[in-house]
Amino acid sequence: MGIITIIYGVILAYFLLGAIGFYMINRKREKAVARKSWIKYIVYFFIINLLFFSIVVQPLVFRLLAAIIITMGVAEMIVLYRKNHFTQSGFFVLSILLYLILAAGFWNFSGARMELILFTFIILSIFDAFSQISGQLWGKTKIVPQISPNKTIGGTVGGVVIALASAFLLRGLNTGSTGETLVMAAGIIFFAFIGDISASYYKRRFNVKDYSNMIPGHGGFLDRFDSLIAGGAWVALFLYI
């Protein structure tokens, strides 16, 4: 468990850096906005810990969480479709089919060996967290403002750089070569980004900001776990290439 302890220490160190970043960002904001940002940060901390310990202590719990995430994702998509009076049926069916394909890959991934799941989870978490922090600190040019207004080139580049650097440092968790590990990590990042954009696009088509309010500050299960589903699906595919 030595390596697991070190990895958890690294996660806590990243969260400390994140807290410093959030402090720098929030000190210039209105109190209500800053409070909402800190709620999101704290909830994210608990989610990361729940997933981390489900992976390293009892992988079957992670499979259960994967099943819950997949099910809630489908439910949230159906709810938005129903709230819009069952309009755009063709788009809805296509979206559900694409989601189920990714979900099948994610489910397959949830049964992989613990080290691989942990590696993927950490890279996704680092990319997601530092994309947000980098974006709020240095992000100016938006990538797809009509779909995901908070996505910026500066934020994405910051997240990619730190995630790939972390993948190199954590390459011992993967059985492949350093090159293979970095290729897999790059795919995780790319699929996570596309998954996030796709989930945002679905919301925009149905004219809502959040999928639900079930996760405080995070806008629902799909808003929170879209990157994990898509990134996990990529790893499942990568294992068969």
Please provide a written account of the structure:
The model has no long low-confidence stretch (mean pLDDT 89). The protein is globular. The relative contact order is 0.14. The protein contains 8 helices and 2 strands; from the N terminus they run H-H-H-H-H-E-E-H-H-H. It is mostly helical. The chain has one domain. A two-stranded antiparallel ribbon has the order 1-2. Helices cover 78% and strands 3% of the residues.
Key features?
mainly alpha; 8 helices; 241 residues; two-stranded antiparallel sheet; 2 strands
Total helical elements: 8
- What is the string of SSEs from the N terminus onward? HHHHHEEHHH
CA-based gyration radius: 17 Å
- For the largest beta sheet, what order do the strands appear in spatially? 1-2
Total domains, how many? 1
Termini gap:
30 Å
Instruction: Give the number of DSSP strands.
Output: 2
Portion of residues in beta strands equals: under 5%
Shape: globular
